[in-house]
Design goal:
Elements: H1 4-19, H2 25-32, H3 36-43, H4 51-61, H5 66-74, H6 78-93, E1 96-101, H7 112-122, H8 128-140, E2 152-158, H9 159-163, H10 169-183, E3 188-193, E4 207-211, E5 218-222, E6 227-230, H11 233-249, H12 253-266
Parallel strand pairs: 1-2, 2-3
Antiparallel strand pairs: 1-4, 4-5, 5-6
Helix pairs in contact: 1-5, 1-8, 2-3, 4-5, 7-8, 10-12
Protein name: Helix-turn-helix transcriptional regulator
Domain HTH cro/C1-type: 13-67
Pfam family, one: HTH_31
């Protein structure tokens, strides 16, 4: 998963380049004395550029310093981006994934329309093409569900998640339908914690735990400022214990599917 700011920077670089008389990447590379491959990597958000690179692009494309503004934002999310990149790599290798979410439908289960509604609300200043790239990056993560040997998935979701209005009714209905379809697939277990449960162990944050064949478990959590990949055994153990406490109060899989369908019918 790529950084939203890195995607925005790459998108804006491409927009300014094309606006300068449909300038090619090769032409810009000669103007700023960098390789064409470097420009391609930045435009596709595969690599974070150095300050010198961005300054030269601003000058060559007469942006008025617009790219440096984005570059300045990028430095504040360096560690979270690296952490999430490490998580994505670990997710691809995981034999099992245990997810808990109290806010939104887990990204690996999201429909494109649901993801777009979330990202648009979260990044109100982002250009449409930036949102497009972010949606694509999120949906690409779901490829692991279609592998010959996908990871086993256990998801516990708070009822507030499926009742929260994300997008229009059609978007909400399609997302709940997607959840119901996934719940019927072998190797995917979705359990709901109903409102009637009241206070429980997972109300403070969402998190997930990755398990591997022959390697220690890892845990991943997010907060408004950053994201964290946890490797310390004591932290992973604490999250695992919290997950087990949530599993105790969650509805069985069949009853959870009934709740998803009930909420879907109420829309």
């Amino acid at each position: 998963m790529r950084s939203p700011t890195l995607i925005a920077l790459g998108s804006e670089l491409r927009r300014y380049r094309l606006a300068a008389g449909n300038m090619t990447q090769g032409h810009l590379a000669k103007l700023i004395n960098y390789s064409e491959g470097m420009i391609s990597n930045v435009e596709t958000a595969q690599k974070a550029p150095r300050r010198d690179f961005v300054e030269r692009c601003d000058q060559a494309l007469s942006t008025g310093g617009a790219l440096m503004v984005l570059h300045g934002l990028l430095k504040h999310e360096t560690h979270p981006v690296q952490s999430f990149a490490h998580y994505i790599e670990a997710e691809r290798q995981a034999a099992g994934i245990h997810m808990w979410d109290v806010v939104v439908v887990p990204g690996i289960f999201q429909t494109p329309e649901y993801a777009r509604a979330l990202l648009t609300a979260g990044l109100p200043a982002a250009r449409p093409e930036v949102i497009d790239d972010l949606v694509t990056a999120r949906i690409e993560r779901q490829e692991i569900l279609n592998r010959d040997k996908p990871p086993m998935l256990w998801a516990i979701i708070d009822e507030s998640v499926i009742r929260r209005a994300i997008g229009d009714k059609e978007t909400q209905h399609a997302q709940l339908d997607r959840l119901a379809q996934l719940a019927n697939r072998p190797g995917i277990n979705i359990q709901m914690i109903p409102h009637a449960t009241g206070a429980h162990a997972g109300l403070t944050s969402s998190f997930l735990i990755l398990s591997f064949d022959g390697s220690p478990d890892l845990a991943y959590s997010e907060d408004p400022a950053s994201n964290h990949l946890h490797e310390k055994p004591e932290l992973v153990k604490t999250m695992s214990e919290t997950y087990e406490a949530l599993r105790v109060v969650a509805l069985p899989v069949s009853a959870s599917l009934d709740l998803i369908r009930q909420v879907q019918e109420e829309l």
